[in-house]
Design a protein that fits this description.
Rossmann fold, 7-stranded parallel sheet, two-stranded parallel ribbon, 13 strands, globular, binds nicotinamide-adenine-dinucleotide, binds 2'deoxy-thymidine-5'-diphospho-alpha-D-glucose
Length: 373
């Protein structure tokens, strides 16, 4: 932990009951683990337990701590599309803080099947906002004053950059995929509930996350697993699209700072100066595989250019000045170290990857080439 990052318990203060939506997913899981490890708050984990959900990492933390599931970690298996169930879950949680991460998150799946993105990300956020609005009306003055709904969003709402420039909180919205359009709509709903109904909200817009426990459909786990298996590694288009990579634990630091110290109604852009072309990322992973499995080197021979993602955004990059200056956030990992640790983790956890792929009925094949329906 860097010197500037306060402890989780200090950040939470008197907030004892935290509702995390999407806590069975990749980033939400990292938030839940941090809350369980570094505070004694009770965590209500609202998740529909969809294809990308898995609780193994949380169960490991509970086992480390000798905690029985259902005491400090309470799973609420609820789909945000179900307004009544969402309202009941919020009443049960009676939260001091809501961290809203639940969303369909994979751009390629939003191309093959946009409907689930509209209902989960837009209608789901609407249902949560309504339930939380009623909840805040029931709170005492002191609890209401400290309460926040923290909406976790993405840099993709800002569209696509050319070779120059970076996204900041004042960049106009320009989403270009069904996924990013659904996230942009949810951001607007959250801001509207703040301005119209006085709901105390904070928003964050983060760049690409990577790290352990990510469902193996996104670039870094896909490439690592394909390289390890000696299979062709799919590089979309010319491979020169740029993403700004951030280690997931650095994102969790930013989320806790924004949720607990962010100003109501304000948004914060989060990114760690980790710009890389996809080709650079894929080549770095292949070089690392050469060290782990020298018999199959060079793995870069497996890189195969495939037809591009429809509407593929060219470049994302974040200017994190606001969250750095106002809240003291700094990333603790650089991309080279974080990527090396992540690749090693996936190589050691291939059984987990097979398990979650099987549960999701996903064979690791290409997604997102179908015509939208
Ligand atoms: P993920 O797909 O790994 O996990 C999302 C979780 O949300 C899953 O467990 C899923 O079951 C749950 N969920 C989806 N729809 C739901 C619904 N209708 N009701 C209840 N639960 C539902 O995603 P992730 O990568 O952990 O992303 C989490 C959040 O962070 C998302 O809001 C995403 O837009 C945002 N984000 C992701 C990244 C990234 O690089 N992964 C970057 C910036 C922002
Ligand atoms: O920028 C933040 C966003 O990052 C989040 O909001 C999304 O939830 C998250 O999924 C991620 O979106 P991307 O589309 O950038 O991530 P993905 O890992 O799918 O792709 C990263 C880049 O790699 C992108 O340019 C497409 C390319 N790619 C992806 C896959 C899966 C390939 O070249 N080959 C692949 O097999």
């Amino acid at each position: 932990m860097s010197q500037t990052m306060p402890s989780t318990a200090d950040l939470l203060g008197n907030r004892r009951r935290i509702l995390v939506t999407g806590g069975a997913g990749f980033i939400g899981g990292a938030v839940v683990r941090r809350l369980l490890r570094d505070s004694d708050a009770t965590v209500f984990n609202l998740d529909k337990m969809g294809y990308a959900s898995d609780l193994t990492s949380i169960q490991e933390v509970l086992a480390e701590q000798g905690e029985a599931d259902g005491v400090r970690h309470r799973l609420q298996c609820v789909d945000l599309k179900d307004a009544e169930a969402v309202d009941a879950a919020v009443r049960e949680a009676n939260p001091d803080l809501v961290m809203h991460l639940a969303a369909e998150s994979h751009v390629d799946r939003s191309i093959s099947g946009p409907g689930e993105f509209i209902s989960s990300n837009i209608t789901g956020t609407y249902n949560l906002l309504q339930a939380v609005r009623s909840h805040v009306e029931r709170l005492s003055e002191a609890r209401a004053a400290a309460f926040r709904l923290h909406h976790i969003s993405t840099d993709e709402v800002f569209g696509s950059l050319g070779a120059e420039g970076r996204f900041s909180e004042t960049t106009p919205y320009d989403p270009r995929s069904p996924y990013s359009a659904s996230k942009a709509a949810s951001d607007h709903l959250v801001q509207a509930w703040h301005h119209t109904f006085g709901l105390p909200v904070v928003l964050t817009n983060c760049s690409n996350n990577y790290g352990p426990w990510q469902f193996p459909e996104k670039l870094i786990p896909v490439v690592t697993l394909k390289a390890a298996a000696g299979e062709p590694i799919p590089l979309y288009g010319d491979g020169l699209n740029v993403r700004d990579w951030l280690y997931v634990e650095d994102h969790v630091d930013a989320l806790l700072l924004a949720a607990c110290r962010g100003q109501s109604g304000r948004s914060y852009c989060v990114g760690g100066h980790g710009e890389k072309t996809n080709k650079e990322v894929v080549t770095t992973i292949c070089n690392q595989l050469d060290q782990h499995h020298p018999n199959n080197a060079p793995h870069a021979h497996l890189i195969t250019r495939v037809i591009d993602r429809p509407g593929h955004d060219r470049r994302y990059a974040i200017d994190p000045t606001r969250i750095t200056e106002e809240l003291g956030w700094q990333p603790r990992h650089n991309v080279e170290q974080g990527l090396a640790a992540t690749v090693a983790w996936y190589l050691q956890h291939q059984d987990w990857c097979s398990k979650v792929r099987d549960q999701a009925n996903y064979d690791g094949g290409r997604l997102g080439l179908n015509r939208p329906q």
